[in-house]
Amino acid sequence: MNILVLNGSPRPTGSTKQMVEAFRQGAVSAGHQVTVVDVYDLLKSAEMLVIASPIYYHAFPGR
Questions:
Q1: Separation between Cα atoms, residue 63 and residue 61, nearest integer Å
Q2: In the 8-state DSSP scheme, what is residue 2?
Q3: pTM for the model
Q4: Where are the beta strands (DSSP E) in 10-54?
Q5: Closest to 5 (Cα-Cα) out of 17, 46, 31
Q6: What is the pLDDT of residue 53?
Q7: In angstroms, what CA-CA distances link 57 with 10, 51, 54, 60, 61?
Q8: CA angle 19, 8, 28 (to 5 degrees)
Q9: Which of 20, 31, 42, 52 has the greatest number of beta carbons closer than 10 A?
Q10: Residues of the chain whose pLDDT is less than 50?
Q11: What is the rounded distance in angstroms from the CA atom of residue 44 to the CA atom of residue 50?
């Protein structure tokens, strides 16, 4: 499985980064390919952020 992780935390050694790294290591050890993108620098330079998702029963779907 090819997995993309978008990390929005601005702290390079914070808890979110540690969770992302633990997830990445587990997924890689299970044979998956994982790409992690630290998006906080991209978010700083963006003038607009668009997040698109279908809505099911008044909420974003779990998938």
A1: 5
A2: E
A3: 0.72
A4: 33-38
A5: 17
A6: 77
A7: 32, 18, 10, 8, 9
A8: 40
A9: 20
A10: none
A11: 14
